[in-house]
Design brief:
Layout (H helix, E strand, L loop, with lengths): L2 H11 L8 H14 L4 H7 L4 H12 L21
Helix pairs in contact: 2-4
């Protein structure tokens, strides 16, 4: 799917989504775009001016699974091995 088609779909559907649900819908929409290999920077550029999409991209990019990753020595962030 092209980013311009995704933008057109969002623009058509957004008025039918209640304002209370738009942030969650944008989050799901952005996650779907990213899952289909659309770069977050491309999303931000194409959807510039859309607050919900921008916030969803920022939230998605800010999420990092660092808490579960081991450090370079094989332990967790506190220096303990998980074994």
């Amino acid at each position: 799917m092209s980013i311009s088609l995704a933008k057109a779909i969002w623009d058509e559907l957004k008025p039918y989504i209640s304002s209370v649900d738009q942030a969650e819908a944008a989050d799901t929409f952005v996650n779907t775009l990213i899952d289909h290999d659309i770069d977050p920077e491309v999303i931000v550029h194409q959807f510039r001016g859309d607050k919900e999409i921008r916030n969803a991209v920022n939230a998605n990019v800010m999420e990092t699974p660092e808490e579960d990753e081991e450090d370079e020595w094989g332990g967790d962030e506190y220096g303990y091995d998980e074994d």
